[in-house]
Write a structure and sequence with these properties.
This protein has 15 helices and 15 strands. With 404 residues, it is an alpha/beta fold. The chain folds into 2 domains: 208 residues, 3-Layer(aba) Sandwich (Rossmann fold); 184 residues, Glycogen Phosphorylase B (Rossmann fold), CATH 3.40.50. Helix 4 links the parallel strand 6 and strand 7.
Length: 404
């Protein structure tokens, strides 16, 4: 799909339950816990907008949040339901709430994006004989039978969307989902927002001033919320091993209430004598500018990223990236051409890669930037994600049309 607005879905959709036999655009209901900032939420809004542009009706049920306004501006409709709760009684009550909503709004497809609401959605889909699609956004914890059972609801869709080949393999291997039901749809990057041509120098200067960065020094940034598996401690140890002066190292992300971990990071920085070199910075509202002021962007996650949005966003802006050699990074980074992959949890490997990245010549950096931008635009754009998702909707609607 080159343009969402040119895509149409479900021209033969009918509402057999209401007796409506005329062809009409489909009504798609996405369900998720809440509309706060995050990859799941971003994808939900993007798909809702694509549904509307394609001539369908987009409904989203959640507990609400700051992205509801953006959803409404896209022409979608939000229905507030207590879908974030993991309380079994509330999950059970949500079944009836969704059944009522599905029937009232003549919903054709239910798209579940998280486990707790997916349980309610699955039973509601069965009771109303509607199509259910699920998106597997992560590996989730699956170390015990009860956890795998709880996660298994995400495998019950007529189609199971995986956000990377890595997740597709995980769903097949751990849960036994047949490959014929799995569809890999990589998370999409807004290549217009993350386009160097659209980032003004004023935005970058304002951010550098706000963060009190000295002029003329290279910047190495590790973005991501402050949580242990994102690898901030490995990053600190790598900077210590690198032992390079005249470089600023930033860890940018909210602690989301993990104040003890934030203090641990600050104490570790002080202990290695790098308080003037490594900086812990809170949530940033202008990540395109943050990537732009960086010379190298790092993802040091010690556990596999399901996709790794940071890596793709940085490359979309022409920034060389360093990521750990597992998970979705193996799909978003071309080793030696758009970035480098390092051994997970290995500070020495990370330090060596940072040194290589910082020592690139201007010509090498320019060639890297061109390859990065081309690779992301060709493989991981928002338009591609939306187009492939709408194709899956149409695929399921077509099957229903043949069987009804």
């Amino acid at each position: 799909m080159d343009n969402d607005s040119e895509h149409t879905i479900g021209e033969a959709a009918t509402d057999s339950k209401s007796g409506m036999g005329d062809a009409r655009p489909p009504n798609v209901l996405q369900v998720l816990p809440a509309l706060v900032t995050g990859g799941v939420e971003r994808g939900t809004v993007d798909i809702a907008e694509a549904i509307v542009r394609a001539g369908g009706r987009a409904l989203v049920a959640s507990e609400g949040g700051p992205m509801v306004g953006e959803l409404n501006r896209a022409g979608a409709e939000h229905i507030e339901l207590p879908l974030a709760s993991k309380n079994p009684l509330i999950i059970y009550k949500n079944i009836e709430r969704l059944v009522e909503l599905i029937r009232r709004e003549s919903v054709d497809i239910i798209h579940a994006r998280s486990r707790a609401p997916a349980w309610s959605a699955w039973y509601a889909a069965k009771r109303t004989d509607r199509s259910l699609i699920t998106t597997f956004h992560g590996t989730y914890s699956h170390t015990s039978g009860p956890k795998r059972w709880y996660n298994s609801v995400m495998t019950k869709g007529e189609r199971v969307i995986a956000i990377s080949d890595f997740i597709g393999g995980h769903v097949h291997q751990i849960y036994g989902v047949p490959a014929a039901r799995i569809r890999v749809v990589h998370r999409g990057i807004d290549v217009h927002r993350f386009d160097a041509a659209n980032i003004t120098p004023e935005r970058v200067i304002q951010l550098a001033d706000e963060w009190r960065l000295p002029d003329g020094q290279p910047v190495v940034m590790l973005p991501g919320r402050l949580t242990r598996w994102k690898g901030q401690i490995v990053f600190i140890e790598a900077v210590k091993l690198l032992n390079r002066t005249g470089v600023q190292f930033l860890m940018v992300g909210s602690d989301q209430g993990r104040r003890d971990y934030r203090r641990e990071l600050e104490e570790r920085i002080e202990a290695v004598g790098m308080s003037g070199t490594i900086h812990v910075i809170d949530h940033c509202d202008d990540m395109p500018a943050a990537y732009t002021l960086s010379d190298v962007v790092v993802s040091a996650s010690t556990e596999p990223e399901a996709f790794g949005r940071v890596v793709a966003e940085a490359q979309s802006l022409g920034r060389p990236v360093i990521a750990t050699d597992h998970g979705g990074a193996r799909e978003t980074v071309i080793e030696g051409e758009t970035g480098w992959l390092t051994k997970p949890g290995d500070a020495a490997s990370l330090a060596a890669a940072i040194a290589v990245a910082l020592d690139q010549s201007e010509a090498e950096r320019s060639a890297f930037a061109d390859r990065c931008v081309s690779y992301i635009r060709e493989n991981f754009s928002k338009d591609q994600m939306c187009g492939r998702t709408l194709d899956i909707y149409e695929e399921v609607l077509g099957e229903r049309g043949r069987t009804q």
